[in-house]
């Protein structure tokens, strides 16, 4: 054995001092943080085998759970061909659905792909400190809804807008999310109807100041001037009739929870739409 670790050299030195009578077994055990019995066994093995006795029995052996080269090649092939641009976690989930299934950890998949030169889809960015608003104490007290206009079909069809809502307390995506060609009042009313019939009415909804949700024009009718307030939009009128409070965000960061959901879906859902070769609004909603 040509090379020894620092720990092995330490044991070799202590055993040599024991042989020379410079240390007792108790002193050697204290130096090596072993019991006297263990030190005695190490001394006996060194006497029979020399420095080779200090080598760990598994040295040079391949771990029993090592993936076979064929499995590694299959993982890389699937990532480069069928699951192009899937992130590591999403790709790992898809491997379990293959035939035959590949049940591998995300860490193993990440190591295999990086070793094969397949880069990560997303690069980690340093966290920016922001003071986050406390979540509501109970589900249903407040929802956050929004529309995400994005190239969901990656050029295979028109740009679409995904309209949906999440619960502020749980972060759960609620029923009613769907794709439309343009963010509009009808889309939000459809989401509201799905939530009301499935989960019940929320206490309030946190939203941006899109024209379908809030009047942003300077036109006032005489009746509005006399009343001192503009008539609400169709969505605003529905929420007012249902006694649901409207809370308007002043910046995209203020509704960061639903924005983070869109970031996740623009990664994972876009990959699923690519896999299904969706080309129309109907195709996209079928995948959703």
What does this structure look like?
The chain is built from eleven helices and five strands, in the order ααααααβββαβααβαα. It is α/β, with parallel strands linked by helices. The protein folds into three domains: about 5-55; about 70-115; about 140-285, Nucleotidyltransferase, domain 5 (2-Layer Sandwich). A five-stranded mixed beta sheet has the order 3-2-1-4-5, with helices on both faces. The protein is elongated and about 110 Å long.
Task: Summarize it.
The protein has helices at residues 6-19, 25-32, 36-49, 69-81, 88-95, 106-115, 185-198, 222-227, 234-241, 256-275, 281-287, and strands at 142-150, 160-167, 178-180, 204-207, 245-248. By secondary structure, the protein is α/β, with parallel strands linked by helices.
Query: How many E-type strands?
Result: 5
**Count of alpha and pi helical runs:** 11
- Overall residue-averaged pLDDT value: 89
Low-pLDDT segments, ≥5 res: none
Class from secondary-structure proportions:
alpha/beta
Largest sheet: 5 strands, mixed
Q: Tell me the β content.
A: 5-15%
Helical percent range? 40-55%
């Amino acid at each position: 054995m040509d090379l020894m670790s620092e720990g092995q050299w330490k044991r070799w030195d202590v055993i040599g001092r024991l042989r020379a009578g410079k240390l007792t077994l108790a002193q050697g055990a204290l130096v090596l943080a072993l019991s006297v019995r263990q030190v005695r066994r190490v001394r006996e093995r060194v006497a029979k085998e020399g420095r080779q006795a200090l080598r760990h029995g598994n040295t040079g052996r391949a771990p029993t759970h090592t993936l076979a080269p064929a499995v590694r090649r299959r993982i890389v092939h699937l990532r480069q061909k069928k699951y192009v641009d899937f992130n590591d976690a999403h790709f790992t989930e898809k491997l379990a659905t293959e035939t035959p299934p590949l049940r591998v950890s995300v860490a193993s998949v990440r190591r295999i792909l990086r070793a094969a030169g397949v880069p990560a889809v997303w690069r980690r960015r340093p966290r920016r400190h922001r003071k986050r608003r406390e979540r509501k104490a109970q589900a249903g007290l407040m929802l956050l809804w929004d529309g995400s206009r994005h190239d969901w079909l990656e050029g295979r069809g028109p740009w679409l807008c995904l309209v949906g809502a999440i619960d502020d307390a749980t972060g759960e995506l609620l029923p009613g999310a769907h794709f439309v060609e343009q963010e509009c009042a009808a889309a939000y009313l459809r989401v509201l109807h799905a939530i009301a019939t499935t989960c019940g009415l929320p206490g309030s909804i946190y939203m941006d100041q899109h024209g379908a949700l809030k009047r942003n024009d300077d036109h006032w009718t005489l009746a509005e001037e006399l009343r001192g307030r503009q008539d609400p939009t169709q969505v605003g009128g529905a929420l007012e009739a249902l006694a649901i409070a409207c809370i308007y965000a002043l910046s995209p960061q203020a509704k960061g929870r639903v924005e983070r959901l869109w970031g996740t879906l623009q990664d994972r859902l876009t990959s699923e739409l690519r896999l299904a070769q969706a080309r129309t609004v109907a195709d996209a909603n079928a995948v959703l």
